[in-house]
Amino acid sequence: MARIATLITDMFEDMEFTSPKEALETHGHTVVTIDKEGSKAVRGKQGEARVEIEYGISDVNPEDFDALFIPGGFSPDLLRDDDRVVAFAKSFMNAMKPVFAICHGPQLLITARAIEGRDITGYKSIRVDLENAGAKFHDQEVVVCQKQLVTSRTPQDLHAFNREIVNLLEEKGL
User: Pfam families attached here (predicted)?
Assistant: First the structure.
């Protein structure tokens, strides 16, 4: 079963963390929460979810994880000003490890300069940013690129996002 690094901080979109986490854990995977600093709690922007942060970014190594999950909301934008977080995300893309990003999640991958030439989707307000970063934007509920990168647009797409992240991990034998 896969060990999945989750980059998350305050103001994440509640359902975009809780729903995929539940889907992954139901299939036996472990979801590990990581922020700039560890040993604290963060809250979703809807006020519904409270998440205990297990590790600070300085305490983790990308090689210790099988996949990366980036929930949406304002969290990805708040995280991408930290070079350590950006480098962590970029290492998964460079290593072709599975990466799951929903809504505003791809903002972190834009800053990592890791999506040029990739098929992708995301929240409509970041479409131009994705295109300017060289990605090929598709207005679809879920896009799977090169059997590595799974992206979705909004909480309404969670059923498809959850299905594809679980399928990809299974396909990879994780």
Answer: DJ-1_PfpI
State yes or no: is 145 an active-site residue.
no
Tokens 């970063």 -> residue: 133
- Strand 119-120 versus strand 142-145 pairing type: unpaired
- Residue 116 has φ and ψ, to the nearest 5°, of -60, 130
Question: Residue 41 class from Cβ within 10 Å (0-12 exposed, 13-18 middle, 19+ buried)?
Answer: exposed
Burial (CB < 10 A; 0-12, 13-18, 19+), residue 119, is middle
What distance in Å separates the CA atoms of residue 170 and residue 50, rounded to the nearest whole number? 29
Q: Whole-model pTM?
A: 0.98
What pLDDT, in 10s, does the model give residues 35-58? 999 999 999 999 999 999 999 999
- Domain positions in the chain are 3-171
User: Is 3-171 a CATH 3.40.50.880 domain?
Assistant: yes
Contacts of 173 (CB under 8 A, 6+ apart): none
Which residue is catalytic, options 104, 138, 145, 159? 104
Question: DSSP readout, 65-123?
Answer: -SEEEE--BTHHHHHTT-HHHHHHHHHHHHTT--EEEETTTHHHHHHTT--TT-EE---
